[in-house]
Design goal:
Blueprint (H helix, E strand, L loop, with lengths): L1 E5 L3 H12 L3 E6 L7 H4 L4 E4 L6 H10 L4 E3 L8 H11 L2 E4 L5 H17 L6 E8 L9 H13 L5 E3 L12 E8 L6 E7 L4 E7 L4 H14 L4 E4 H8 L1
Parallel strand pairs: 1-2, 1-3, 3-4, 4-5, 5-11, 6-8, 7-8
Antiparallel strand pairs: 6-9, 9-10
Helix pairs in contact: 1-7, 3-4, 5-6
Length: 242
């Protein structure tokens, strides 16, 4: 399979390593100095985008216009999801998106939802979240943290919103989950969900040890999406792994 890497930073390089180990080839390495063109993308079977929030939407439209199956790991564009989904249908192509492609994190998403359902019967517990990423992380909170918050809101009737003191959404109507977005050097990503009461505390946590899990999940998603049509998430990929 010929994979175009849209964004060739630390994640792009890790994806390249995993892709080569799995027998694929890299057809293009797209950066700000080497943007996508008809010529350099013409030989690609699939594209994996880990670029920037400021460029990802333009990248998506280019890939859809050229009917290149796309794995989108960049966050910050979900407000445009309905328009993108319509274009995927119109172009008869495919796209898979996720706030996090790590298989472990996606299992953590499911655990988070199950715990939220269980805790919804116990109003004495207050839920909060902490996420820690490297200092180069641009968005706060992370897309992964937002996905976790949405999973709680969907399954816990006593929680209806979230806010992040370190981000743009610094307040929300109660009841809301406080997400603390901490940035530290060389941290690959840690997400902690805490339910605390006067009596005790219940906590679940996912800690990434390196970028390999994110890269492996993205390559598996790229392998999975070939010959499919429509918009998918990592949950669709996981369903086929079971």
């Amino acid at each position: 399979m010929k994979i175009a890497l849209v964004g060739y930073g630390k994640m792009g390089k890790e994806i390249e390593k995993i892709a080569l180990e799995r027998g694929h080839t890299i057809s293009a390495k797209i950066t700000s100095k080497n943007p996508m063109t008809d010529d350099n993308m013409s030989d690609s079977d699939v594209a994996i985008d880990f670029s920037t929030p400021g460029t990802v939407l333009d990248n998506i439209h280019f890939l859809l216009d050229h009917k290149i199956p796309s794995v989108i790991g960049t966050t910050g564009w979900n407000d445009h999801l309905s328009n993108v989904a319509q274009k995927v249908d119109n172009q008869d192509t495919s796209l898979i998106y996720a706030s996090n492609f790590s298989l472990g994190v996606n299992l953590f998403f499911q655990l988070n939802k199950q715990l939220a359902k269980l805790m919804s019967n116990y109003s004495d517990y207050e839920v909060s979240m902490e996420e820690i990423h490297h200092t180069e992380k641009l968005d706060a909170p992370s897309g992964t943290a937002i996905t976790l918050a949405e999973g709680i809101i969907e399954n816990h009737p006593n929680v209806s919103n979230w806010y992040c003191p370190q981000g743009e959404k610094t307040e929300a109507n109660s009841p809301a989950i406080q997400i603390d977005a901490i940035r530290e050097k060389d941290v690959k990503g840690t997400h902690t969900i805490t339910y605390s009461s006067e009596i005790d505390t219940i906590r679940i946590e996912h800690e990434a040890h390196n970028r390999k899990g994110f890269a492996l999940g993205a390559v598996i998603a790229a392998e999975w999406i070939i010959n499919k049509k429509g918009v998918f998430t990592m949950q669709d990929v996981l369903a086929d792994q079971q």
